[in-house]
Specification:
2-enoyl-CoA Hydratase, Chain A, domain 1, 266 residues, 2 domains, 47% helix
């Protein structure tokens, strides 16, 4: 896998990739180049079957402070067409994370603001340390409250009413409130953050690679399903595909024998 200037990659154990936003002196604020790197990383991961789960976190005291201020200072100088092209590229990070067949766990160690908030929303699961906090900062700087998919993702994660409040006010949500409203799956002490993310990754990896991949895809597809019948129709086809895999036979045999399954990816 290629090297990235703003991202640090580490494989603490087989099948798990920890991706760290790596600008701790700037609270991991995103440069324009880091948006490109995150999208490229998702492309690389789609070709890498050895990675079963991705954990995304931030270096130092912050998860991601949003767009770097030096980059943000360039925004008013852009023409509308230039800004739109940039916006489409920046928002492409959220699309890339959602389209990635590998599950992504956000281990939110500090502030997740603006673009950092949207990136956390685009991950499949979120674990927050007690030091984490979240806000849709865009509206606080004269932009709209919806950015990089936040106006689509947030209501589906926490419900419309509270999503309206957070997007319209831009106020901060601390870790405990985030847990209470369902914004994060779990809240842990700072020293327990990475172990908790690894534990969740292990739980995912107990299941076959094909089953995990297709489950992530069917959840995303059925968010837009018009009827229950259409949702079930897609599930039925996925189950018919899954039952034909050797990993399904191995999973069933391991379950009956009460032993760990050994998956071949076929």
């Amino acid at each position: 896998m290629r090297e990235y200037e703003g991202l640090a990659l580490d494989c603490p154990e087989k099948g798990i990739l920890v991706v760290t936003l790596n600008r701790p002196d700037r609270f991991n604020a995103l440069t324009f180049e880091m948006f490109d790197e995150l999208t490229a990383l998702c492309t690389d991961l789609e070709r890498d079957e050895s990675v079963r789960v991705v954990i995304l976190t931030g270096a130092g005291r912050g998860f991601c402070g949003g767009l770097d201020l030096q980059a943000a200072a360039q925004l008013p100088e852009m023409s509308a067409p230039e800004f739109l092209r940039g916006q489409e590229k920046w928002a492409g990070v959220s699309l890339a994370l959602r389209r990635l067949s590998t599950p992504v766990i956000a281990a939110v160690n500090g502030a997740a603001a603006g673009a950092g908030f949207s990136i956390a929303l685009a991950c499949d699961l979120r674990i927050a340390s007690t030091a984490a906090k979240f806000n849709a900062a865009f509206i606080r700087i004269g932009l709209t409250g919806g950015d990089m998919g936040s106006s689509w993702l947030l209501p589906r994660i926490i419900g419309l009413g509270i999503a309206n409040e957070l997007l319209l006010t831009g106020r901060f949500v601390d870790a405990h409130e985030a847990g209470r409203i369902g914004l994060v799956n779990r809240v842990v002490e700072p020293d327990d953050l990475l172990p908790a993310a690894l534990e969740m990754a292990h739980q995912i990896m107990l299941n076959s690679p094909f089953a995990v991949r297709v489950t992530k895809q069917v959840i995303a597809a059925n968010l837009g399903a018009a009827t229950l019948e259409l949702g079930i129709e897609l599930e039925n086809r996925n189950q018919a595909l899954a039952v034909a895999t050797s990993d399904q036979r191995e999973a069933l045999a391991a379950f009956l024998a009460r032993r760990p399954a050994v998956f071949s990816g076929s």
